[in-house]
Amino acid sequence: IGNGAATATLTYNGSGDTTDRVINLAGTSGGAVLDMSGTNTLTFSGNFTATGVGAKTLTLQGSTSGSALITGQIVDSTAGATSLTKTGSGTWTLSGANTYSGDTTLVAGTLTLDNKLAIQNSALNCSGGTLAFSPSVTTPTFGGLSGSTGFSLPTTVTGLTLNVGAGLTKTYAGTLGSDGTGITLTKSGAGVQILGSTTFAGSTAVNAGKLYLNGASGTSAIAVAANATLGGTGSAAAATATIASGGLVEAGARGQGMLTLGSLAFTNTGSIAVTDIGNYAASPAIRVLNSDGLTTGGGPGSVTFALRGTAPAGGTVHLLDYAGSIAGTGFGAFGLDTSGLTAGPRALFTLTDNPGYVGLTFSVDKPVWTGAGGGAWVTSPSLTVAPPANWTLASNAATPTNFIAGDAALFDDTAAATTVTISAADVSPVSVTFNNTYRDYVLQGGYGISGGTGLTKAGYGRLIVTNDNTYTGGTTINGSVVQVGDGGTTGALGTGPIANGGLLEFNRSDTIAMAGEHD
């Protein structure tokens, strides 16, 4: 039925029959329509085929005068998914363990599932009509849920598995309920299922892939297996989410929104993914409501915050808000994975234990001058350097480093040598601070500090500037001495304003003109 892009229709007007004839979906993009306009029951007992290469739709339609039953298997083509659409006022029943993977769309009439695997690979979209289940089908498997129309499962259905295939994302924006006391919801398959609200009680198991809860959820317990992910922007306020070793929790849905849980317990190792850290400057990524409802079970660093996105320049982000205290092995079980963050080369990330929340503090490390590597201030393309070096890290004085463009350069009393020579090319730090009390510094060379940066001098020690600098960000002198020149004709601060809260001396043999504003 069907030819190329053309859709064809097979209509039955008889009084009921059974046929084992093979229905071949022969179109490439053209589909097939089976129209049951007869009386009694028409049964298709043979397996369907789909020799037409391409995605296509099988439409089941008919009137209420009769009904139709497909006991054979509906399949995909070798290169294209088969979808199924139910229209018309009549009833069609699927009794086979079908393998087609396109969506099943219920528009009108009744579609009855007489096999729990009838739509095992097909996402259901109930946009109209009635979805019915044979009494024996108590734990059906769908290939996911899609659409936005709400519906309730009958009392006979006690469990539902959403089996979303690898590489697929199925989004359901409606409300899923149950006419019974509750169901067990299971997410299987490597794909992603996004759910709206759920009103049923019962438990939820995330066995594979990702399950996003984007609305209010009535579930009482959520179990997340190894390598599976629970996320979403909704609230499961009554649920305890238990994360098996190797399981994952994602803040929000793909970097948007906050996931709210009643309790959250990690049995051993696990991961908390914060996909776009920049979205959580004003609100937490995850919130746990119950007092002492956050539990860790592994050793140090066993639960990793996996951070992605662009890191803010500074400040603290609330990664996880909780009530009471952290039970189990406590805060020490948390660790950091910043490999997915876009940040400057000097970025520092510190996980912090605060009353009521686990925070992440962002700051920027800086190079501190040592002068141990010869005294030349040069710009390097790489941070890595073998000792002895002219710089070490402010966060770890034992780590040698290079100066790179945009660094915040610090010169203090810890230096081995305090004569700084800029002799290869101008340097462009983001800021320059001389904070020396017990030792004097000399800034010299044939080149200087350039760019929009400024220079700050603190401490009682002297800074002698004998090179010519062109920076435009201004000079601030706080209770200290800056000497420009050393008896010759060189030595200049930048062109910006000078805020003099100390002593500014000039020791040059010529006359100089100073640009900018001066206090």
What fraction, in percent, of the residue positions are helical? under 10%
Mean pLDDT: 95
Strand count: 47
**Cα radius of gyration in angstroms:** 35 Å
Strand content: 35-45%
N- to C-terminal separation? 90 Å
What's the shape? elongated
Helix/sheet category: mainly beta
The largest sheet, given as strand count, sense and whether it forms a barrel, is:
13 strands, mixed
How many individual domains?
A: 3
Number of helices: 0
Spans with pLDDT under 50 lasting ≥5 residues? none
Descriptive report:
This protein is mostly beta strands and about 525 residues long. The protein has 3 domains: about 1-135, no CATH class; about 220-365; about 365-505. The protein is built from no helices and 47 strands. The strands form 7 sheets. Strands 13, 15, 18, 21, 23, 25, 27, 29, 30, 32, 33, 35 and 36 form a 13-stranded mixed sheet that branches. A hairpin with a 2-residue loop joins strand 35 (about 345-355) and strand 36. It is elongated, with a radius of gyration of 35 Å. The chain starts with 7 loop residues before the first strand and ends in a 13-residue tail after the last strand.
In short:
The protein has 519 residues and is mainly beta.
Topology, pairings included?
Layout (H helix, E strand, L loop, with lengths): L7 E5 L4 E3 L12 E5 L3 E5 L11 E7 L3 E5 L11 E5 L4 E4 L9 E3 L3 E4 L10 E3 L3 E4 L7 E2 L8 E3 L5 E5 L5 E3 L3 E4 L5 E5 L3 E4 L1 E2 L4 E4 L3 E4 L7 E4 L4 E3 L3 E9 L3 E4 L8 E8 L3 E5 L11 E6 L2 E3 L6 E8 L4 E9 L2 E3 L5 E9 L4 E8 L2 E8 L2 E3 L21 E3 L6 E2 L6 E5 L6 E3 L9 E5 L5 E4 L10 E4 L3 E4 L9 E10 L13 E9 L13
